[in-house]
Specification:
With about 800 residues, the chain is α+β, with helices and mostly antiparallel strands. About 60% of the residues lie in helices and about 15% in strands. The protein has 24 helices and 17 strands.
């Protein structure tokens, strides 16, 4: 079943295919990656486990080589020194034991061809060792030849170590393994020197070939020593220098010189030489044991890490598998949901087509009857619609049926006449409740007048929508569908959109009729418009459509300058937002407003105008135009008061400026001194104000300053003075803030926090995000010992401390 559904949806919807790929491919990739990772970690663990086998084999080989070295030495000097016979016999027993142990450790490498070949070579040469031992016992052997056979066997053993495979993922171990071999080789060549030198000392014969082999052993010792010291770690080098003492090296060097002189009388005592060389061999073995301990620890650490990595990779594999299974269940749910939604989407697409066709003629049509007939025709063409009609209310409060001709129209006309006085059909329910009415299933709900013939005409669901015009129901659209639950929430929203578009079209038709009528009326009124009194006319959206010559002369603009502009182009900063809110409230609620308004002329000069603004309405009471009539009263206003106000107040915010503030501070100092109370002064500086001006423009900066002034004015007491003394600097003067310093400081702290909270509540400025915060400095004063300017400086100093604290903070001057 799932396969069939997948085929269906993959053919119908390429987006669904992409969803499947996006969901499943990463999960499959994770599963593949985790499987590879698990395989690698298992392989790594197997490799790491080989480390222990390699170490065991190396140790067994080293012990066997060490035993053969001693046996080789004793055999070499046995013919010249009978006293070594007992040591030789004991050493042979030890060699046999070491060989048996070596064979046990060798069985682990049966699958590694190269090392198996070397082990077999060792075995075949060890079998012939017994014959050579008999020759030594009977003193029928050549000491040097026997020595070379022992050396060859040791060479095979050491070569077998070289044939061990490197361990993957263990570079540090492989490195230690390499210089561990350098130690073994150095030890072997010292043992070779010990044996060859012993032959020379006991035989008293100068054999050039032995001297040649001795020189070779010296060279090999030096090479392997350098290799070890170069690759070994610092503590291992220190261990080497500690064990292999310089005195032993020097003594051995002296004996070498004597042997190289070819004078048998200068040869040292065999026991002295044997003990000396054995000390060096033992020292190297101590170094070997030290390094071996570190190698074993490293091997254990690698094995632990490998076990942990394997556990983690197995966990990842399990999570990936569970994720994939979960995704498969999710996709299964998506497939069935897609199957359910496919029909739903197809249904919505059909309705969208209906809406698109409707929108094409809604903008062009200008006749209501033609509009309704066109809508009914389009509904009848929809495959999911059995029938659709519009019932239109007439002036006589009757209903007129508009629908496609046919049996259902005739049946509906008859039934609606019979049911006209009843409240149990779709149309009357919509009219009474003023809302959409949906019948999901005709078998359950029989509210429609067609319920008794629903099965005959394949009607399974229905919906009725009120058609509004200027908030009044003028018609009802009724739709019947051949699908149960066809009018779900989404379809209802789509048809509501169509109803809204129809409402807009009907209202537009009425607007057009009224516009033509009003234009005729305005044409008559225009003759009276061109009088000596300044006047403007705007449309309902407050865009100027006409201004007479008198208005243009007073304001200094041409008619072309003001047409299609909003009258707020003349607005000055003289009057605040509350003034204009009151103006519009009176105009919209009362129909007119009269008063003095301060406008700005083209040359930026303020002009006071006595104004009367009247709202012109149509027959329905809707505003269509505004008429403004003005009288220039500049000469009637006391110019001195205007000048005085401008001299003491900030032009932008209307707040007192520095001049007026200093005067009020002097009064406050006199007051607090007389009444023995404290006053306070708050210095506010806006952080990031320059950035706002530079990035958003000075208009936005001015808007912010006006908002800040308003917020502070709303926060402080009526008796407090608010002043703007600079670009973004404000001061609040409170001349009676407390009877004691503690009380005054507490009250000023609360006041400052309220101001800070109020200014931080400014989120947007003209649609832009506000990035400005206040830095606030506070100072107190209680007598005339400090002047007004010094009080401002104290608060200014505290404000700069607040800025240094990270801005948006409050600091007191101490």
């Amino acid at each position: 079943m799932i396969n069939n559904l997948l085929k269906f949806f993959l053919l119908k919807n390429t987006l669904f295919l992409k969803i499947i790929l996006v969901f499943t491919l990463p999960a499959i990739g994770m599963l593949y990656f985790s499987s590879v990772l698990v395989y690698e970690k298992i392989d790594t663990l197997a490799e790491v486990s080989n480390i222990q086998k390699n170490i065991q084999y190396i140790n067994a080989t080293q012990k066997l080589v060490d035993s053969l070295e001693k046996e080789r030495g004793y055999s070499a000097i046995y013919s010249g020194a009978e006293k070594f016979k007992e040591k030789l016999d004991k050493q042979r027993i030890i060699t046999n034991e070491m060989y048996a142990n070596y064979l046990k450790k060798s069985i682990h490498f049966k699958n590694q061809t190269e090392i198996v070949v070397n082990i077999k070579k060792v075995q075949s040469n060890f079998y012939s060792l017994e014959l050579m031992r008999n020759e030594v016992n009977n003193k029928k052997n050549n000491s040097f030849e026997s020595f070379k056979k022992y050396s060859y066997l040791n060479e095979l053993l050491l070569d077998s170590i070289y044939s061990l495979r490197p361990i993957h993922f263990a570079a540090e171990f492989n490195n230690k393994f390499s210089y561990l071999l350098n130690l073994l080789l150095q030890n072997e060549y010292i043992a070779i020197e010990r044996g060859l030198s012993s032959i020379l000392i006991t035989s008293k014969i100068n054999n050039p070939e032995i001297h040649k082999e001795l020189i070779k052993s010296y060279t090999k010792q030096l090479i392997n020593k350098k290799q070890f010291l170069l690759k070994a770690e610092l503590d291992e080098v220190n261990k080497y220098n500690q064990e292999v003492k310089l005195t032993i090296e020097n003594d051995i060097q002296e004996i070498r010189k004597k042997l190289e002189s070819y004078r048998s009388r200068d040869y040292p005592d065999i026991n002295v030489w044997w003990d000396l060389s054995s000390q060096k061999i033992d020292s190297l073995e101590n170094v070997y044991d030290y390094v071996t301990v570190k190698v074993l620890k490293l091997a254990r650490d690698l094995e632990n890490d490998a076990y942990l990595a394997q556990i983690l990779s197995l966990t990842f594999l399990l999570v990936s598998f569970i994720t994939l299974i979960s995704l498969l269940f999710v996709l299964r749910s998506i497939i069935f949901n897609e199957q359910r939604s496919f029909t739903k989407i197809k249904k919505q697409q059909d309705v969208y087509k209906l809406l698109n066709k409707t929108n094409k003629f809604l903008l062009k049509i200008d006749n209501e009857k033609l509009l309704f007939n066109k809508i009914c025709k389009l509904i009848s063409e929809n495959n999911s619609m059995t029938f659709g009609f519009i019932y239109k209310k007439t002036k006589e409060h009757n209903m007129k049926l508009i629908a496609q001709q046919g049996e259902l129209k005739e049946l509906l006309t008859t039934k609606l006449i019979d049911e006209n006085n009843k409240n149990d059909n779709l149309i009357t329910k919509v009219l009474n409740e003023k809302r959409n009415v949906i019948i999901p299933d005709f078998e359950v709900d029989n509210i429609s007048v067609l319920s008794d013939v629903a099965s005959l005409f394949d009607i399974k669901s229905a919906a009725a929508f009120p058609i509004m015009k200027f908030n009044n129901i003028v018609s009802v659209l009724v739709l019947y569908s051949n699908v149960k639950n066809f009018f779900d929430e989404e379809i209802e929203i789509l048809f509501e959109k169509m109803i809204n578009d129809m409402t807009h079209a009907l209202e537009k038709m009425d607007y057009e009729k009224n516009r033509l009528k009003q234009e005729a009326e305005l044409r008559l009124a225009s003759y009276a418009f061109e009088s000596n009194e300044p006047m403007i006319i705007t449309n309902s959206e407050a865009s100027i459509i006409n201004a007479n010559t008198a208005f243009c002369n007073v304001m200094g603009y041409t008619k072309q300058d003001v047409i299609d502009r909003n009258p707020n182009m003349f607005k000055s900063k003289h009057q605040n937002k509350e003034f204009y809110d009151k103006l519009w409230s009176d105009l919209l609620n009362e129909g007119s407003w009269s008063g003095v308004i301060y406008n700005t002329k083209k040359n930026k000069e303020k002009i006071p105008l006595r104004s009367t603004i009247t709202a012109i309405k149509d027959d329905n009471g809707d505003i269509t135009h505004f008429l403004g009539q003005y009288i220039d009263i500049s000469e009637d206003i006391d110019k001195q008061k205007v000048l005085e106000y401008q001299a003491t107040h900030d032009n932008l915010t209307g707040l007192p400026n520095r001049l007026l503030l200093l005067d009020r501070i002097e009064h406050a100092i006199t007051k607090v001194t007389r009444h023995n109370i404290l006053g306070g002064l708050v210095f506010i500086d806006l952080d990031n104000f320059k950035e706002i001006n530079d990035t958003l423009g000075h208009d936005v900066g001015d808007s912010l300053l006006i908002m800040v002034a308003k917020k502070i004015r709303e926060t402080v007491r009526e008796e407090d003075t608010i002043a703007r003394i600079g670009g973004d600097e404000f001061i609040v003067l409170a001349d009676c803030i407390g009877a004691s310093k503690e009380e005054a400081k507490f009250n000023m702290q609360r006041l400052s926090e309220k101001i800070k909270f109020s200014l931080n509540s400014i989120i947007e400025i003209d649609g832009h995000k506000n990035i400005s915060t206040p830095s606030i400095g506070v100072t107190l004063f209680s007598d005339a010992s400090i002047g007004a300017k010094d009080i401002i400086k104290q608060a200014d100093t505290a404000m700069y401390v607040a800025k240094k604290q990270g801005k948006n903070s409050i600091e007191f001057f101490d």
